[in-house]
Design a protein that fits this description.
With 109 residues, the chain is of the alpha/beta class. It is 34% helix and 26% strand.
Length: 109
């Protein structure tokens, strides 16, 4: 199941919280591939507040997901599409950076 860590300054929390439901739907569609069909309920999003000014972007997302072949082939496109989605939904968030970390994942219930 994909996880998303959103790193931001505390003052941007409310704007990001308002985007979470739509972002889950968008990510479920972008990360769905022939091997797996994702539901928004299967994506965990966490907002982590950062102190200091040492980030590359104003808001940074790290998306961790299983390395299915289709995702590997489209990884840059997925990152750019997620970035564009957030920037279109809230222009005030400013510079958004997105990383897609594809790896072998296990999970438990």
């Amino acid at each position: 199941m994909p996880t998303v860590n959103i790193f931001c300054r505390r003052k941007d929390n409310d704007q990001l919280i308002n985007l979470i439901t739509g972002l889950k739907i968008f990510l479920a569609k972008k990360l769905t591939c022939g091997d797996i069909k994702l539901s928004p309920k299967e994506i965990s999003i966490r907002i982590l507040n950062i102190e200091g000014d040492n980030m590359i972007g104003k808001v940074e997302l790290e998306i961790k997901a299983h390395a299915f072949k289709e995702r590997v082939e489209k990884q840059d496109e997925i990152c750019n599409d997620v970035r564009q989605y957030i920037m279109q939904k809230d222009k005030l968030l400013g510079d958004i950076r997105v990383w897609l970390i594809l790896c072998e994942l296990g999970h438990s219930w």
